[in-house]
Amino acid sequence: MNKIKLFLLPFMLLTLVACGTLAPGGAYKDKVLYSADLTIATSYDLVHSFVLWEYNNRAQLKAMPQVTAAADNIRANARMWFGSALAMRDAYAANPTKTNLDKLQAALTLLRTAMNEAVKYFVPSTATATP
Amino acid sequence: MEIITAINAALGLLEVLVPQIARLFSSGQITVEQQQAVLDRINALKKGVDEGFTGPEWEPSTKDDE
Hints:
The structure holds 2 protein chains of 2 kinds.
Chain A: H1 3-14, E1 21-22, H2 31-56, H3 65-94, H4 98-122
Helix pairs in contact in A: 1-4, 2-3, 2-4, 3-4
Chain B: H1 2-22, E1 29-30, H2 32-47
């Protein structure tokens, strides 16, 4: 595994914006909307993997209660975060104004924060066991 | 030892997820197929926004203590 890539992952996720250009004739005409959708889908995959991993390894993680606490925080809020992001995404898609863009970006920031929280514990060098 | 088992499991998951995330940062053209895959993924999430958060892994850990 590329350790440098792992180390950079949290920083990459903070600025998650799809690179490249949209090929003509595709499902998207707006790069902002494509990036938003990519962020939402990737966030879901990542936080779901995290809560599933924590659930499957809870006994082994007893010495690291902060991991379970982080997973519980995500469990308590994920439905609201994703529901909000999807609603803001639809509002922006229907009416791409600056106000709707700002609301969408705010919703995506919450998802990026959740992703970073999950990744923090997936990367062993940043998670420390309590004695 | 137990922590190492858990960390190994996490690394296994990351090995799957990191290339997926790394693809986001690759430059070049986002193909029609890639765009459609993202749109399909979002539509599936929208359709199953409630089902997406069910299952034992989404239950708070404190429920185990009850």
